[in-house]
C-alpha cells in the first residue's frame, strides 16, 4: 500500500469504526518505517478517537517523535470527547510551556470546548484573552466556541458580552445564546432573544423548544404549536423535545397527539423519536405502552439509545427485576454498553446487594474501558462504601482522572462511617480548595467528624466556610454547628447559635440539651427542656436521656426523679433501659439504695450489666458490704465471662476489705484467662 491508500484506508476505518483494521494499519505503518510521518500519525490518532480507543490515541501521541499543531488539536479533542477535559487542558498548558507550537483558531476552539465540558470558566477566560491578543475575534466559528464555553460554564453575563461584541453573528451564535438562557431557566430572556433574531431557522426553533423543555416550561409546547401553525416542518429533533416537555409536565394527552403526528410524519422509525416515546410513556407510568413501542420497533433495538430508554423506564418505575432482565438481554444480544448503561446496571447491583452480579458488571466495565469514567467511577465508589470496602473506594478515587462531586461526597461519607476521620476532613478541605460544590449533608458529616475528634480549629474553619457560602441560616447546618461547639466544650457558642434558629425541631432541642449535659450545665438543660415543652415540641427518648444525664452529673436527684416519672405521664413515652440505667445510677451515687432496688424490681425488663455495675460501684463508695454481695451474684449471672466484671469486683472488694472474696475473684480471673469463654463462675460464691 502506498501513502495515499493508507490515508484512504484510515479514513474508512474511522467512518466505520473498524478498530481491528485500524490496528492492522498501524502495524503496517510501523513496518514501513513511517513512524516519523506526522500527517499519517495524526490521522491514526483521529481514527483511535473515533473508535473510542482513547488510551491508544494517547499512547500514540506520547510516542510521536515530532508533533505539530494538528497533533495537539486532535489529541485535545480526543481527551475532551473521552470525558477527560482536565487532561485536555493539562496537555494544552504543557504545549504552551514548551513553546514548540503556536496555537491557532482550531486549537483554541478545541480547548474552549474542553473548558466548557469541565466547567472551568477561569481557564476559558485565559483562552479568551489569548484569542483577542491574536486578533482572532473576526473568526465566527471560534467566537461561537467561546460563546458556547461561557454558556456551558453558566456564565451568561460573559456570554452576552461576547455575543454583542461579535462583528459577525450567524444563526449558531443566536441559537447558542437562546438555548443557554432557556436551559438555565431564564425563559423571558430566551424568548426576547428569539424575537430579536433576524430570521429564525428550524434549528433556532428547535433550540428554544429544547431549552424550554429542559426547564419544564409550558412555553415549549406553545412553540411546537406555533411552528406547526407557521407551516414549519417538525423534524426528528423537534418531536423528542416536545415529548420531553409532555413527560415533565405530565401532559399525557398532548403526548399521545404528538405520537400520532410522529406516525403521520414518518418519524416512527427514528431512534430519537422512539426513545422519546418510551421515555414519555414510562414517565407517565404507562410502562406497558412503553414496552409495546420498544417491541414494535425491534429493528431499532440495535440502537443503544432505545435500549437505554427502556432500561431507564424500568428503573424509574421501580421494576428492578425487569431492569435486570433487560441488562442480561442486552449483554446476550451483543449490545455495546455505554457509561449510562453501566451506571444503571450498577444501580441494579446496589438495589439487589448482589456481590456476584456486581463482580460481573465490574468485569464488563473494565473490559469496555469505562472503569475510570467519572460517572461510573463515582457509582463504584458509592458501591464500595455501601459494601464496607473503603480501601477499594480510596484506591479507585486516587485513580480517577476526573472526579465529580458525587465521588468526593461518597468517599467523605464512607471515611467518616468507617472511622477514617482525618481522611474525611482532608478530603473535605481538598473540596474547598478546588471550589467544588459541597452540599448540606457533607457539611453535617464533616462537622460530626470535628465533633467526634474534638477538633475545634477544624470546626471553626468549617463554620467560616458555611458563613462564606451563606449556609449558616440552614437549620440542618446550624444544628450540626451547635452540636460541634457543644462537643468541643464551647457551650456558650453552641447556645448562641441555637438561639439564632428561627425554627427549632426535636433534633435541635435534643442536641443543645445533650450538649448542656455534657458540659455540666444541668440547670440550663432542665430549663431548655421546659422551654421545649412550652413551645409545643415533644421530647423524644434521647432528649430525656440528655436531661437525666445532666441531673446525674449535678447530683440533682429530685429533679431527675420528677423528669423520670413524667416520661409516661406527660410525654407519652415508654421508658427504655437507658432511662432506668440513668435513674438507678442517680439513686446509687447518692446512696439511696432502697429507691434504686425498688426501681430495678419495677423494671419491665431484666436488668443488664450496666445497672448492676452502677450499683456495685456505689456499694464500694458507701461501704455497703451486704448489698455488694447480692449485686455481685446478679452481675456474675448476667456476665459470667466478662473479664471487666471481675476487675471491677476486685476493686470493690479491696475497697470494702472483703479479702476472702477478693482472692476467689482473682482465682476466677486466672481461670477465665486460661479457659476462655464457656464457663460460669457463679459457683465461686457457693
TrEMBL record:
Cited Gene3D superfamilies: Tetratricopeptide repeat domain (1.25.40.10)
Keywords recorded for this protein, A-Z: Repeat
InterPro entries: E_motif, PPR_At4g14850-like_plant, PPR_rpt, TPR-like_helical_dom_sf
Protein's UniProt keywords contain Repeat: yes
Pfam families according to UniProt: E_motif (PF20431), PPR (PF01535), PPR_2 (PF13041)
Residue stretches of each PPR repeat: 68-102, 170-204, 303-337, 404-438, 505-539
Listed name of the protein: Pentatricopeptide repeat-containing protein
Record-level GO BP terms: RNA modification
